[in-house]
Design brief:
The chain is an alpha+beta fold and about 550 residues long. It has 2 domains: about 190 residues, Neutral Protease Domain 2 (Neutral Protease, domain 2, Orthogonal Bundle); about 230 residues, tricorn interacting facor f3 domain (Immunoglobulin-like, Sandwich). The strands form 5 sheets. The protein has an 8-stranded mixed β-sheet, with no helix packed on it. A hairpin with a 2-residue loop joins strand 1 and strand 2. Helix 6 packs antiparallel against helix 7. The two termini are about 40 Å apart. About 10% of the residues have low confidence. It binds zinc ion.
């Protein structure tokens, strides 16, 4: 998500219009999205309609050992990455998007193979039903769940956002289990109800997490079942391989994470699209009959931009921006491994990232819009830091958002040179200093989304966060800093990271002891040297005592 930029529009716009003194009223409102864009105020809550059960889809058996089909989703040099994923999360999904009484309804079934990669024995498997979060404002119903071919009673929890599938036979470490389920998803409200993420509006269907997604089992802690607040991203998931047969009306353009390998007629004016993915932690689908498409290549990566009628000129600019960003990030962080990256114009606030696809808001999709450029570069940056390297976005949003906000600086410096880089970073430093000067809390970076409020989430995670990386770069020197980022990217590709993994990558690459520096900016986290924490806390206490009047 590109939250920082929205807030920045307000502050920057106010500076232009009213001068610096006018900032006082705006900085505190910076994160309050609905007040910034009155037309996007959330609709009053309604009770979503359960979709009537359809005839179940009979899924074919799946040969889980056949991995060759997934290589089409990879750049040739990375086709071998697939081999490590035979015993990771595996999904075979068939789904159909239909429209009944103005409601977009997705009916599907999935065969999932989960392998227990922990040292614990599991008595249940947990799926997340993300559309049931108030933030997505949809309705997902799951029925006819089977474990290894035998029907089971799955249990809903966490206000229908978690589905607990019991296992009659406990799953020992290293063992696999196959689960099938039928599901339906209804999107009966416009996308303004869901922060522009999920819904159907003006012939555009946008469906993040449109299928039951395996949750993450954390060794010794159990299955992750937290419910996200609307302020941040909702998903926490592990990478796996997906094979999808997705059926839409003939005239619909289908945009999905992964790569389409074939299409064929499905009868009744419908077409089935066969899609495979590389190691991805989530799949987005966007579908509409209105999209135009323009494509270019960065090395062997296809960059596809999908735009609405009349928006061709901006689309060509988005294509150039996304291509530049991919080229720059490939060089600076390490290679993007997938065969394609899609960019789609949809209703949303600024932009949102998904593996292999980003969505950019129609309202900033304007030729020459500076924000369209920053939002696009930011969401492309998330392909490195969220998609390829994942994290718990609900509990540790700084891990992907702060580093991705730093990728904006990397993009600007590589493309426009030092002056533009300095102007932008100075503007962010001014903003952060101004925020602190108001007496607002200088919170650590490593807090869950729910620990921040609208007045400080953006400035801490999206402004202080990238400034932390600037300071780290200053401390280490640019070359060593970039070496460390490359080590981080190489070491944790396709995995989930913690704050300690960031610290370790920077320490291992440079030989420096960075615990105190990380503590000062990031705050406490597991893996930080307890002696350093104690020392830093004592030092802070002394400073506060001495500084008291
Ligand atoms: Zn973001």
């Amino acid at each position: 998500m590109t939250r920082k930029n929205l807030a920045w529009i307000v502050v920057w716009g106010t500076i232009l219009i009213g001068g610096l003194t006018a900032c006082a009223g705006t900085a505190s409102e910076a994160g309050g999205l609905p007040t910034l864009v009155p037309t996007m105020t959330a609709l009053p809550p309604i009770v979503p309609t359960d979709v009537p059960l359809a005839d179940p889809i009979a899924l074919p058996p799946v040969n889980w050992d056949d991995l060759d089909r997934f290589r089409a989703a990879m750049r040739p040099a990375f086709a071998g990455d697939i081999d490590a994923f035979a015993h990771r999360n595996r999904y075979y999904i068939e789904a159909r998007l239909v429209f009944e009484d103005e409601v977009a309804i997705l009916r599907g079934a999935q065969r999932v193979r989960y392998t227990n990669r922990s040292a614990d024995t599991l008595n249940e498997i947990v799926f997340r039903l993300y559309p049931n979060l108030p933030a997505l404002a949809g309705r997902m119903v799951v029925y006819q769940t089977e474990v290894n071919g035998a029907p089971v009673e799955a249990v809903l929890a966490e206000r229908d956002t978690a589905l607990i599938v019991p296992l009659d036979t406990p799953l020992t470490p290293g063992a696999s289990v196959e689960i099938t389920m039928q599901f339906s998803v209804a999107a009966e409200r416009g996308m303004y109800a869901s922060y522009g993420a999920f819904g159907y509006q003006r012939q555009v269907f946008s469906g993040p997490e449109w299928y039951p997604v395996l949750s993450v089992y954390e060794e010794g802690r159990g299955w992750w079942m937290e419910r996200a607040t609307p302020s941040g991203d909702a998903v926490y998931s592990e990478t796996g391989l997906y094979e999808v047969y997705f059926t839409v009306p003939d005239d619909f353009v289908l945009i999905m994470s992964g790569t389409e390998v074939e299409t064929f007629p499905a009868g009744d004016g419908m077409t089935t699209h066969h899609i495979v993915s590389g190691p991805m932690r989530d799949l987005l689908v966007v579908a509409s009959p209105i999209f135009g498409k323009t494509t270019s290549y960065v090395d062997d990566i296809a960059i596809n931009v999908y735009y609405w009628p009349g928006d061709e000129v901006a689309a060509e600019q988005v294509l150039r921006i996304a291509s530049d960003a991919v080229r720059i990030f490939n060089e600076q962080f390490g290679p993007y491994p997938f065969a394609e990256l899609d960019v789609a114009e949809t209703f949303n606030f600024t932009g949102i990232e998904y593996p292999g696809v980003i969505i950019i808001a129609d309202r900033i999709w304007e030729p020459g819009d500076e924000f369209m450029e920053i939002a696009t570069a930011h969401e492309v940056g998330h392909q490195w830091f969220y998609s390829v390297i994942g994290n718990n976005q609900v509990d540790h949003p700084w891990l992907d958002e702060s580093l991705t906000s730093f990728t904006e600086y990397v993009y600007l410096r590589a493309l426009y040179g030092e002056k533009r880089f300095k102007d932008t970073t100075q503007s962010d430093r001014d903003w952060y200093n101004y925020y602190k000067s108001t007496g607002a809390p200088d919170l650590p970076l490593n807090l869950p989304v729910s620990a921040y409020d609208d007045s400080n989430y953006s400035v801490i995670v999206y402004v202080k966060g990238p400034i932390f990386y600037l300071e780290l770069e200053k401390l280490l020197g640019r070359e060593r800093f970039m070496d460390a980022l490359q080590l981080y990217y190489q070491r944790h590709r396709y995995e989930v990271v913690s704050s300690a993994d960031v610290l370790r990558a920077f320490e291992d690459a440079t030989g420096e002891d960075l615990d105190a520096f990380f503590y000062q900016w990031v705050g406490e986290f597991e893996g930080l040297d307890p002696a350093v924490i104690a020392e830093e806390q004592a030092r802070t206490t002394v400073t506060q005592t001495q500084g008291a009047p």
